[in-house]
Design goal:
α3 packs antiparallel against α4 and α7 packs antiparallel against α8. The protein has a domain of about 100 residues: Serine Threonine Protein Phosphatase 5, Tetratricopeptide repeat (Alpha Horseshoe). The termini are far apart. The relative contact order is 0.06. It has eleven helices and no strands. Helix content is about 85%, strand content about 0%. By secondary structure, the protein is mainly alpha-helical.
Length: about 240
Amino acid sequence: MALNNLAIRLAATGDRAGALPPAQEAVTLRRAQAEQNPAYQPDLAGALTNLAIRLAETGDRAGALPPAQEAVTLRRAQAEQNPAYQPDLAAALNNLAITLAETGDRAGALPPAQEAVTLYRAQAEQNPAYQPDLAMALNNLAITLAETGDRAGALPPAQEAVTLRRAQAEQNPAYQPDLAMALNNLANRLAETGDRAGALPPAQEAVTLYERLAAEEPVYADALAQAKETLRGLQDAPE
């Protein structure tokens, strides 16, 4: 646990290369423990997911794939024995979908992205605390669908993600960055279907939100620049 947390903290400070050794060591230790005692398999799955994320962040997307896949295999077995692990399976599936897409296997990314949404939707229906996870998975599904060429199919999950994020941000301003991200994604998805006029309002709202956020926290400067680029592209596009 300490090694996993160290890896996460190092990555959060920007030291992605430095985060790898503790993440790798955590997997090695958890694997040894799980071989002796199956009760450690959930910890191994968590360490594998963390390692996959750390590897992807250093640019080793191909290397991130095996631990991401193994984490899903473990989480699926755990969820079959105990439904309490279904949220963990959904998280592992979402990470696998992202990893597959980053390696260029966009078609392969679609099934885990869809399954993650299905699982999170079931969780959110029982417990609203999972709605942020559902929104995140919907956003990822929309991107994945668009990348496979199904631009029309990408619209509903992108729109639902905005609806969920807006409700969350109204209750808690901490979700405003997530709303801005979902709005920017929706604008891109609408533009890809040819509805540039419909894409303008969410693009403008995303810029407005990011401007407010960046004024308070400079960490949002890059996201603001990307949102402005999206908006400029829509405004400059020929009718």
